[in-house]
Amino acid sequence: MSDETQNKGTEVTEPETTVEALDTVERSDSVAAKVAEHVLAKVEPTVGVSKPDTIMVVDDVVRRFGGMTAVDVGHLEVQRGVITALIGPNGAGKTTFFNLLTGFDKPNQGSWSFEGRSLHGMSATKVARNGMVRTFQLTKALSRLTVLQNMLLAAMDNPGENLFGSLVRPLWAGTEKRNTEKALEILARFKLDTKKDDYAGSLSGGQRKLLEMARALMTDPTMIMLDEPMAGVNPALVQSLLHHIQALRDDGMTVLFVEHDMHAVRHISDWVVVMAEGKIVAEGPPKSVMQDQAVIDAYLGAHHDTDLGDDSLLDPAVLARLEAEEDKR
Ligand SMILES: Nc1ncnc2c1ncn2[C@@H]1O[C@H](COP(=O)(O)OP(=O)(O)OP(=O)(O)O)[C@@H](O)[C@H]1O
């Protein structure tokens, strides 16, 4: 039985649903959170708006699959040191866009830069070496390795991964010792140190997500990209996961995460970018984005049963419209 399952039921206050869990997540009151809020409050919430300190800039990125345009992003700037959520209904193009930015897919046209350096045509490994790293779901192969082995494999300077390195054993041994110390430190941060010798495949859904994040930190990234970090996570671990994401920002990293559930983003993100049908249709602080007509239309158009999040964040006119739509069905 997983820890999550064991915990369930023993605490009366434990959330039953992810939404319930999210409702109790408090926004970090760290200096970084306050600075992010203060700086972004001065940015106009309009698509393509300039940011005061950009870490990534995207221009005219288009990706087509046959006759279908999956991504068509004109201009996007990502602010350094804040948590940006990339949201949108199913099929909006989020994953495709994410794969393009991280070098896992190639666009038909467009350019984008990270820290002022063009990433066009750069391999995923090179993108990671430049300080932008994405999390990966645990593959079957990685599930058969222990938690610690997963961490060591993620270390960028692990010469044991290549033949030459394994031949110069004394050099490798020194690096491995340093990497092991680093891995154990990071695992302790995620409360996974006691699981270091367990097979990664034996971890619960939430613990896997934490390991994915922990692995990414082995490369000391400047920017960390998370793909649906809350997907498949037990409500009992959602709060802890969100606290960890905020802690990344509080430690000075830039975070960009993809999510389709609005509930998940409003509590922790500093800035929200909304995609629909391949295009960015809105961007702004979570509160204003949820009241944006284009966002409501995008979600309603794609998914009539989508819950937009906390009703109290919607103004009465929007609520009345949603109720009218509901009545019509
Ligand atoms: N390799 C591919 N070949 C053909 N079509 C694709 C491919 N990858 C994505 N698409 C299409 O591109 C569109 C955008 O898909 P994408 O997965 O990027 O959306 P998404 O916003 O991430 O959706 P979800 O939230 O469901 O993951 C969809 O219509 C999808 O079917």
UniProtKB/TrEMBL annotation:
One Gene Ontology molecular-function label: ATP binding
Signal peptide: none
One cellular component (GO) term of this entry: plasma membrane
Alphabetical keyword list: ATP-binding, Nucleotide-binding, Transport
Alphabetized PROSITE patterns for the sequence: ABC_TRANSPORTER_1 (PS00211), ABC_TRANSPORTER_2 (PS50893)
Keyword Cell division annotated: no
Sequence ranges assigned to domain ABC transporter in this UniProt record: 56-302
SMART domains: AAA (SM00382)
PANTHER family according to UniProt: CONSERVED COMPONENT OF ABC TRANSPORTER FOR NATURAL AMINO ACIDS, CONSERVED COMPONENT OF ABC TRANSPORTER FOR NATURAL AMINO ACIDS-RELATED
Name used for this protein in its record: ABC transporter domain-containing protein
